[in-house]
Amino acid sequence: MAGGYSRRMGRDKAGLVYHGQPQWEWTRDRLREVVDRVWISCREEQELGAPAERIPDPVPGQGPIGGFLAAHAAAPGQAWLAVACDLPRLDGAGLRTLVAARAPHLLATAYASAEGLPEPLCAIYEPAIFPVLREALAAGTACPRRVLRELGDRVRLVPLPRPDLLDNANTPEEAAALGAPGALGGGEERG
């Protein structure tokens, strides 16, 4: 999931460098450790990955749910492991833990935040959830966390194996604190 506008960051978070490569590439490489194929959900104008790897948002401004629905349209019978591109501490072990906890008989499997809330941008969405997401978006609900919360026991929540696993950055100061060189000034993190 790389299609956000990164307004608070002031630059595309997908291009920040924490691990020697743009964050979208690093995330893609971690996902390749646990899934057969990786797709990049992005805005049409973003130049991320090869064209065959991209799923552009068909309707800009629909947020993550719009990206989830675009992915579902590309492969309607598949479950989707959705991961935000701005999680520099999410590693292969963290992804394997989530995949191992998958509950295909439910609508989704997601990490739980410290507050016990579902983390929608590190979650597995089963095919049966997509009509629910479509209805939520049509009703004006663009918040995937709210949808998952309202689904209650139809979503498996998985405890975080490490408290920092899903740390993310929304501002240059937060990116610098997480180790993005030049996040407060230079442009070397653009990819």
**β content, as a range?**
5-15%
Secondary-structure element order, as H and E?
HEEHEHEEHHEH
Unreliable sequence segments: 186-191
In percent, how helical is the residue content? 25-40%
Major sheet description: 4 strands, mixed
Q: Gyration radius, to the nearest Å? A: 16 Å
The CATH topology is Spore Coat Polysaccharide Biosynthesis Protein SpsA, Chain A
Distance between the termini: 16 Å
As for the number of domains, it is: 1
Dominant shape: globular
CATH architecture annotation name = Alpha-Beta Complex
Alpha plus pi helix count: 6
Q: Could you give the count of β-strands?
A: 6
The secondary-structure class comes to: alpha/beta
Output the CATH homologous superfamily. Spore Coat Polysaccharide Biosynthesis Protein SpsA, Chain A
The overall pLDDT average reads 87
- The level 1 CATH classification is Alpha Beta
Give the spatial strand order of the biggest sheet.
Answer: 3-5-4-6
